[in-house]
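Office hours follow-up: a student asked to see two folded examples consecutively, so here they are.
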Amino acid sequence: MNKKSKILLVAALGALVAALALAGCSSGGTSSSSSSSAGKSDAGSYSLVKEGTLTVGTSPDFPPFENLEGDEYVGFDMDLGKAVAEKMGLAFAPTTIQFDGIIPAVIAGGQCDIGLSGFSIDPERAQQIDFSDAYYVDDQAVVAMKSSQFTAENVDTAVNSADVVIAVQSGTTGEDYAKENFPNATVKPYGNATDCFAALQAGEANIVCTNNAVAKNTIANSYQDAQVIKADATGEEYAIVVSKDNPELTKAVNAALAELQKDGTIDKLTQKYFG
């Protein structure tokens, strides 16, 4: 073997060793990255605030969907969230966030993985976050005190007046509904649905606009002196809120919802909470 051949052979062997070393480093990096992912779906990796846990942002003042009984989170959404987490092989961990702060929290990350709090699918919201498949359909309701001048017969005209105050939960479709249907009235936002009904009973507001299931539940359990004077078939679809930066989590949530629909769990929860 001449000198030139020896040089070429050494160079070739050196290149081979370097390539093998690079491949080893690359493989180690992929493995490390994969193991650091907090969760995995069939389609790929998704991130979680806490490994092995589905952290759920909710505003627990919207019965029968979410409410607090002592320190326990209860309601349709909370039972659904537990079932979704179980299907995903994760622990369920709800955390309280005021309703109009849940979507910003989901977008920012670090505080919760998903939002589950009676969110209606809405084009404006969909520009900021992703929605799961729908799991419930609800309508809007207009509530007044039984002793007031507002009735089912005069609701469309009497409520749409400058001297009428409508209590709504901030950031909800109830707020949008009130502004759209009663533009002459004063729409007053509150942090939660409970405060809206308290304001109605105290005379601070004349009307409450909220989702029909919530209106009926709250009246039956706490405000029997109020009544629904209008139920509008808006057909709002409820869904789970997920960050656009976490598409694999949306896929995993949808897969869980599909299983829960197929095995009858969602129907059982609907019957349990809405009859």
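And the second, which I mentioned at the end of office hours:
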Amino acid sequence: MADILAVDDSASMRQMVAFTLKGAGHRVTDAEDGKHALEIARQKKFDLILTDVNMPVMDGLSLTRELRQLPDYRFTPILVLTTEAGPEKKQEGRAAGATGWLVKPFNPDQLLATVKKVLG
């Protein structure tokens, strides 16, 4: 199973994501904002990053751009899980290097299917 970094400023959202992913056998580390996530990602290699967009300190798209600059994360799947559903925001996410986009509230089965798909 995969090592996944889940990034969201909402503790309850991090808990729901972790519960869903751990239930499928994945190992989950969480972070409350992009800056914290970047610090963690520099210390440990993850198979997948799952990030919110709107967070204090560093938002998810900035985090995605920063991760894509690191050799370890050039090709790592990065999924955006957010309330943002507009096409321009999704395009901004693709331009930043996001692999996929899921809209909250998420369906646990859909999340697991997407994770499985991007992990190959």
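Two things to take away from it. Residues 11-23 form the longest helix (13 residues). Strands lie at 3-7, 27-31, 48-51, 78-82, 100-103.
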